[in-house]
Amino acid sequence: MLKLLIVDDEKRTRDGLKMCLPWQSYGIGEIREADDGHTALALALAYKPDIILSDIRMPTVTGIDLARKAQAELPHCKFVFISGYSDKEYLKAAIQLKAIRYIEKPISVKELEECIASLTEACRQEAEQSKRLAETAAKLETSIGLLQRDFAVQLAQGGPDAGEFNRLLAASGYELPFAGHYVSVLFRIHFAPDIPIQRTAELRGFLHEAITRVLGSLRITAMAGTVDGTRLVAHLLVANGLTQDDIRSAAERIGTDFARLCGPGSPHKLFAGIGRTAKGMEQIHLSYQSAVAAVQQVFFLGNGRVAVFEARPAAHAGLDDSFDQPFAGYLLACDEAVFPFIAHIAQEIRRHDASLIDDVKMLFYRLLLKLYAEAQNKFLGRYMEERKEEYLWHRVSDAVTLNELLAFLESEVREYFAAVASVGAKSRVVHETIRYIQRNYRNGGFTISDIAGHLHLTPAYLSQLFKKDTGQTINDYLNAYKIDRAKELLADRGVKLLEVAARTGYNDVKYFTKTFKRITGITPSDYRENALK
User: Fold this and answer.
1) Does 421 or 124 have the greater pLDDT score?
2) Is the separation of the CB atoms in 187 and 272 below 8 Å?
3) Taking the alpha carbons of 294, 295, 300, 306 in that order, is the dihedral positive or negative?
4) What's the pLDDT at 394?
5) Contact predicate 283/157, CB 8 Å
6) Distances 416 to 393, 408, 413, 434, 483 between C-alpha atoms, Å
7) What is the pTM of this model?
8) What are phi and psi of 223, to 5 degrees?
9) Of the candidates 123, 120, 44, 116, which has an alpha carbon nearest to the alpha carbon of residue 82?
10) DSSP bridge partners of 297
11) Is Transferase a UniProt keyword of this protein (predicted)?
12) In Å, how far are 44, 78, 399 from 100, measured between CA atoms?
């Protein structure tokens, strides 16, 4: 049975959530609760829930902080945030988080049911996949020597105590000097999206085979093992004049052999990080740690696949929001100078290549949001049609290299320019239509024919142009605009509901309420309560 943790600082909310669904029918057999983020984090690490249902805004430790810290230890845990309408932008900022859903207040039981059903099904599928993976991996790992793998991984993680070294070394079958010099090389496979779980085990087998074959052909002695689902490590004995260039060349050959085993046109990528030299087996974990840091540097290397560790402090300068406004200015003017500016951004990022990768991704996320906002301002409906925020989020967070982010940003800008050019003079009709609506929406009573007459067009042709360029009908735009104005008025308790309706062009308060709920999902009264909390 699955485990659920409910986190909210209001007991009434927690009790309501526990009572509103037949949890056992979804396979959830145990529910626990916490009233703040600190308690929730401690409980999550001990309880290990499959799903956490949490308020996003809590004192001291927010839902975002809780998710970030918990997922570092519980990567398969699913999060559902309960959020007010004003929390969406805050939620988007957690770009590095995965498996996130959110439900707006007031909570819809139907929406909660659908969300929980989806997550519990995902949990069951992952459990089945993990079981199959474990069975496949067990067979594979047995063939390459389970003891040797375990010993190599123990060395990477800090190793056994001194008294255990000789016993484990003898049991592993390795004939290597305890006091020799070693260099750790960490290999990380970046799997293509939606790869079957069985295929990942096969690819790790290919990598083991490539490591064994290449190092054997070069007469380099090494201990190798699987760290996790995407990473394998090899600790190379530095002997017989082995140099750093030799190690880099060997890592590159392993990459070539791995690609050959994967087959022509394989979408899977292999990256390698070479650590610093360790003096003795007891220090191998330090070489491994530096190899982990080196793998991170592959992100900045462009087409390179192998990085050598260089000791440098983390740097954040140069990755603030100073690029945002110039970039937005180029977009507003549709200025081709934006492309040299993007190249300048890339140059600055590579100059600060000790920056955190998440900081770099956040920079690109902000720039793309600027691009999409300007496209919306220009009513480029066809451009925006398939560009959902979730798509943007995942494209940025899943990027493996800086070059991928640059190519994606440049491609999106070029498509934006093409969309602007294709609209041409038609955009005047759209802008004039919108200006008419904004000037007259309070009066109500006007029709598409009235707007068309004002612009000296037929109603059918006007409707066609507007839908083609904005992706929505004139009536949809009109209602959405009026509801947005209504939201502003609802924030003031001094304005009665009847007056809100009248001031936004609705003569019938019942029709206003029905339209408001259809567009927002909640009634005007519920929206006012949320807005004034």
Assistant:
1) 124
2) yes
3) positive
4) 76
5) no
6) 18, 12, 5, 21, 28
7) 0.48
8) -115, 125
9) 116
10) none
11) no
12) 16, 7, 18
Reported as type and span, the H/E element at residue 103 is strand 100-104
Residues 122/115, Cβ–Cβ less than 8 Å: no
d(CA 336, CA 323) in angstroms, rounded, equals 16
- For residue 388, give every residue at least 6 positions away whose Cβ sits within 8 Å of its Cβ, in sequence order, or none: none
Looking at per-residue pLDDT, the higher value among 470 and 194 belongs to 470
Q: What is the dihedral of CA 212, 213, 217, 221, to 10 degrees?
A: 0
DSSP 3-state of 239: coil
37: amino acid identity, one letter: G
Written as six digits, the tokens of 74 are 């519980």
Q: What is the pLDDT of residues 22-58, one digit of tens each?
A: 999 999 999 999 998 889 999 999 999 999 999 888 8
Q: What is the DSSP letter of 191?
A: P
Q: b or e along 293-331 (b: 16 or more beta carbons within 10 Å of the residue's beta carbon)?
A: bbbbbbbbbeeebbbbbeeeeeeeeebeeebeeebbebb
Instruction: Find the farthest-apart pair of alpha carbons in the chain and give their distance in angstroms, rounded.
Output: 92
- For β-strands 222-226 and 231-237, DSSP reports them as antiparallel
The Cα 23–Cα 190 span in angstroms is 37
| Average confidence score pLDDT of the chain | 83
pLDDT greater than 80 at residue 212? yes
The reported pLDDT for the residue numbered 143 is: 44
Quick: pLDDT tens for 325-384: 899 999 888 889 999 999 999 888 887 766 778 788 889 988 998 888 887 766 665 555
Cα–Cα distance for residue pair 56/85, rounded to 1 Å: 11
How far apart CA 5 and CA 207 sit, in angstroms, is: 39
Question: Which tokens is 530 given?
Answer: 């949320």
